[in-house]
Specification:
Layout (H helix, E strand, L loop, with lengths): L2 H4 L1 H6 L7 E4 L3 E5 L7 E7 L6 H7 L1 H17 L5 E4 L15 E5 L9
Antiparallel strand pairs: 1-2, 2-3, 3-5, 4-5
Helix pairs in contact: 3-4
Protein name: Histidine triad nucleotide-binding protein
InterPro entries: Histidine_triad_HIT (IPR001310), HIT-like (IPR011146), HIT-like_sf (IPR036265)
Organism: Ornithinibacter aureus
Length: about 120
């Protein structure tokens, strides 16, 4: 099985695994996290498989910008007065799915520093 065939987010993008999609663009897909860490917790993933945010930036600055713009659209659509965008890179940072993605978090006060 290839990396993209076994990747959870690639399978969601392909429609093979159901997800609650809240927004999409040509290059990105946004869907609700199944284990939310905030009242609003949406994942924004590039349609292209790259392992992390640095890989996405290296592959295509335009696709990275598209993901960030979609994250902002999600926050606006959700009516968030403020929000956090998080990208975990590497297992030590808490990345558990090795497909680049942004977490859009909001709907409550977010403290700093995060856990």
């Amino acid at each position: 099985m290839s990396e993209t065939e076994s990747c959870l987010f690639c399978r969601i993008v392909a429609g093979q695994i159901p997800a609650t999609v809240v927004a999409e663009s040509v290059n990105s897909l946004a869907f609700r996290d199944i284990e939310p860490g905030a009242p609003t917790h949406v994942l924004v993933v590039p349609r292209r498989h790259v392992p992390d945010l640095a890989g996405l930036a290296a592959a295509s600055a335009a696709e990275l910008a598209d993901a960030v713009a979609l994250a902002a659209q999600v926050a606006d659509d959700e009516g968030l007065p403020g929000y956090r965008v998080v990208a975990n890179t590497g297992e030590a940072a808490g990345q558990s799915v090795f497909h680049a993605h942004l977490h859009v978090l909001g709907g409550r006060s977010l403290t700093w520093p995060p856990g």
